[in-house]
Amino acid sequence: MLKVVQKEKTKKISKNKKNKTMHPRPSFGWKNAIVWILLLLVLVFLIGNYIYKNYYHNYNYIKEDHSRYLVYTADTSINKEGKYNEAPYVNIDSEDAERVNEEIRGYADQFLRNQEYFMVYDFQVNGKVLSLVIQISKYDENGDSFEVIYYTYNFNLDTRRLMDNDEILDLFHVKEKDVRKKIKKQFRTYYKEEVEQEYLNEEECDYQCFLSLRQVDSYMDFVQYYIKNGNLIAYRPFTVFSDYEEEEYFTEKSFEFYIAG
């Protein structure tokens, strides 16, 4: 009797082993699945980063010419001092940009062909705003005075529209009266410093005389707005006289009036 029982147990164990071998584990385990998912995520990230850098970050989706910057030099010349004059082109595919480029071509040609002038430009992107400033400067025929002209253009890169002055001021939560106060304060500082450094004699030329020399009838005349390093700048041109050697006091930055930041 003992031998029979032993055989039955042996058969039962063998049967159980046979049943286990009928259902093998899959070779593609959960660890492999995680590795493949991670590799897929990395690939998606790399592709997305490439598209962002080459399409959205560089604003290629709004450009006329994807191979160029948002603003590039369209025409050049050399003035009598051997300096390069440069006329910019706004590389945005929109009606406003087309209109601005036509306007720039309209006045730039006369300055590029006249060797008495010096024409340069600069631009920045701050947030969703592209700001372009064009500076045109010249000494008069006798070399007695120095004059400068500014043109600025600010584009909303989301809408590709040219922004007006009110829109620019609203970005910085300021009003035109605030701009006027800042410009007036800076002109008074210029006058005070010119007197202190003896470019002007206070007894011979008061503040109104100073403004007259600058040909400033209104603080807001010829004001152009530009966003520079996140700050709102108002360019306010005025006349500088070589008779008083004022070109040693006034520099290009003297025409920049900080408004807000």
In short:
The protein has 261 residues and is α+β, with helices and mostly antiparallel strands. 38% of the residues lie in helices and 26% in strands.
Main beta sheet: 5 strands, antiparallel
Shape: elongated
From the helix content, strand content and strand pairing, which structural class follows?
alpha+beta
* Assigned CATH superfamily of the largest domain: Fervidobacterium nodosum Rt17-B1 like
Descriptive account of the structure:
With 261 residues, this protein is an alpha+beta fold. It has 2 domains: 40-163, Heat Shock Protein 90, CATH 3.30.565; 169-261. It has 6 helices and 10 strands. Strands 3, 4, 5, 6 and 9 form a 5-stranded antiparallel beta sheet that branches. The protein is elongated.
Topology of this structure?
Layout: H1 2-20, H2 30-56, E1 71-78, E2 84-90, H3 95-113, E3 117-126, E4 129-139, E5 145-156, E6 161-162, H4 165-171, H5 176-196, H6 207-213, E7 224-228, E8 231-235, E9 240-241, E10 256-260
Antiparallel strand pairs: 1-2, 3-4, 4-5, 5-6, 5-9, 7-8, 8-10
